[in-house]
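Minutes, project huddle
Topic: does the predicted pose make sense with guanosine-5'-monophosphate bound?
PN asked that the exact inputs be recorded in the minutes so nobody has to dig through chat later. Recorded below.
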Amino acid sequence: MATIFTKIILGEIPSYKIAEDERHFAFLDINPIAEGHTLVVPKKEIDYFFDLPDSHLQSTISFAKKVARAIDRSLKPLRTGVIVQGLEVPHAHVHLIPLYTHNQSMSFSNKVDVSEDRMKELAKKIAESLNTD
Ligand code: 5GP
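Predicted holo structure (tokens), as shared on screen:
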């Protein structure tokens, strides 16, 4: 059965999409721990991140870098943190978490409330900052 992320990639489930290329897809996490919390997903359905073939692992990190730079430019956090966890959704993905203060928690217990309108605005802002290097 397709993973929830594959359904998002195929457009069967809506998402706040940020970017896509042949092999990767980026969208806002629906339960963010910071405004602009983004997921970068290789389209290939592989559960464990480190089971990705080297070339795909590398391209996923390069794609994540592009999205992180767009987050940095658009939302102006101190920097963007990275977590690879995969304990909930069995489809490899990278969490990009904008860090706005030095003591900001990266714990997944610290969810923030972000309205639907703000989620739309965040996705748009990040998407518009892609390729503006
Ligand atoms: P992990 O697998 O890395 O432990 O966490 C999976 C992440 O995916 C969680 O942060 C969760 O909020 C996010 N997530 C789960 N289902 C959906 C969904 O349907 N849409 C979006 N945008 N994010 C999801």
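Observations noted during the meeting:
- The pocket of guanosine-5'-monophosphate is lined by residues 4, 8, 13, 15, 27-31, 39, 85-89 (CB under 6 Å).
- Residues 54-75 form the longest helix (22 residues).
No decisions taken; revisit at the next huddle.
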